[in-house]
Write a structure and sequence with these properties.
Chain lengths: ~170, ~240
């Protein structure tokens, strides 16, 4: 439904390159409301999460009701309304990893950074999450730091690895 | 159009094809309990109260979304169905905070009526007692999530009949809630037209006008059905 009524790309704030990225994707998808999920993927990739202002922009551009967009975002676990942090540390808590001491890793992370699963440090540098199983049971216990899977880790190695990536300590 | 024979509760009926089991039963005064069904808006089969047994199919079928076929043998009131209806009703009551005595809808509530019909005298499941908001931000209406049963009739009426799509659902599982816009207060909605159709579509006391006090609310869901029919006629 490409039409004159669709929000033109030039209306996207020129100062924010991330919004331009989303605007380009919307244009590529021909302003089709069906492409909502693809566009949300792009937005989440650009921002790391989905701020309400961006959702408002997407809803307007696609002529979708705000509630429909919000409904879609909250239905899928992949989408997040809150920032997950610049760097993420995902601890696998599947059966194998749990047996091999995933809880000890989580305890250490909480002790070191005062972060419980799902929380982000105040400066937004690091976020800790848990996953049920990342499918690397042979590498238990496994931790994913910034999309980098680290297997058969011990607590000290993780703290060191996080420190190298984020320079947080 | 050729009529097709079906057997419902051992009654032989000649009915139009392309109709749902629910429509056929309602036409022939066979009672089927429903909650999420409202004539005039799309059926989604979510309340699971209209389940019926169809011969040759092991699982129970929802009457509102299953079309009749020739020589279908349907039972609507077996012990198995009655058992499930009672379970479903009890789960409705256990899920949120339903207190009839202080509810605006007391006496004219579809959930209350359902409780009487299925003979619920106690609830065998632990109540969840969720912390629910009461949204009083709209100048005329109140949305009380404590009394909502997630039938989504308001969502469908707002979308299909009014065309505003103010309502939708957030989250999933037991954390689902009806939302207005971006889960913002109803009063701040940019899409709501304040038409009040959701209020009449709501089977319980979840949406009600502010001027009403306890037990005084009279809802008219039939108005929605009439409205849809009148619009089709285009007088």
């Amino acid at each position: 439904m490409k039409s004159d009524t669709a929000v033109p790309v030039k209306d996207a704030p020129k100062t924010d390159p991330r919004l331009k990225l989303i605007a380009a994707r919307i244009k590529k998808e021909n302003y089709k409301p069906d492409a909502l999920i693809e566009i949300l993927h792009t937005a989440q990739g650009a921002y790391g999460y989905l701020p309400i202002e961006v959702l408002t922009y997407i809803a307007k551009a696609l002529h979708l009701p705000p509630s429909r967009v919000f409904s879609t975002v909250t239905f899928y676990h992949f989408f997040s309304l809150k920032s997950k942090g610049e760097h993420t540390c995902i601890v696998c808590t599947g059966t194998a990893c749990y047996v091999k001491g995933a809880q000890a890793i989580l305890n250490k992370l909480e002790q070191q950074f005062a972060l419980k699963p799902g929380q982000v440090t105040k400066d937004n540098k690091l976020g800790v999450q848990v996953a049920r199983c990342i499918g690397a049971c042979g590498l238990a216990p496994a931790v994913v730091i910034d999309n980098d899977v680290q297997g058969k880790v011990n607590v000290e190695e993780i703290i060191q690895s996080i420190n190298e990536k984020t320079g947080i300590l | 159009m050729n009529k097709i024979p079906v057997l419902i509760d051992e009654k032989k009926l000649e009915v139009d094809p392309h109709r749902t089991i629910l429509e056929v039963c309602r036409e022939h005064d066979i009672e089927i309990l429903t909650m999420c069904h409202l004539k005039g808006i799309a059926d989604i089969g979510s309340c699971r109260l209209c389940l019926v047994e169809v011969e040759g199919i092991n699982k129970l079928m929802s009457a509102c979304t299953t079309k009749v076929t020739a020589n279908m043998v349907i039972s609507t009131a077996t012990e198995r169905i009655k058992k499930y209806q009672r379970i479903t009703t009890e789960l409705f009551f256990a899920e949120r905070n339903h207190v009839c005595a202080v509810c605006v809808s007391n006496g004219s509530c579809e959930l209350q009526e359902l409780g009487y019909k299925t003979g619920v005298d106690n609830i065998r499941y632990p109540h969840l007692f969720p912390q629910c908001n009461v949204d009083t931000s709209h100048p005329w209406y109140v949305m009380d999530h404590n009394r909502c049963i997630m039938c989504t009739r308001c969502v469908r009426v707002c979308n299909e009949v009014e065309g505003a799509h103010n309502w939708d659902i957030k989250n999933r599982g037991h954390q689902v809630r009806i939302i207005s816009d971006f889960d913002t207060p109803w009063g701040a909605s940019t899409t709501c037209t304040s038409c009040g159709k959701c209020l009449h579509a709501c089977p319980t006391g979840a949406i009600w006008p502010k001027a009403i006090v306890q037990g005084q609310l009279v809802k008219n869901p039939g108005m929605i059905t009439e409205l849809v029919e009148k619009r089709k006629m285009r007088l």
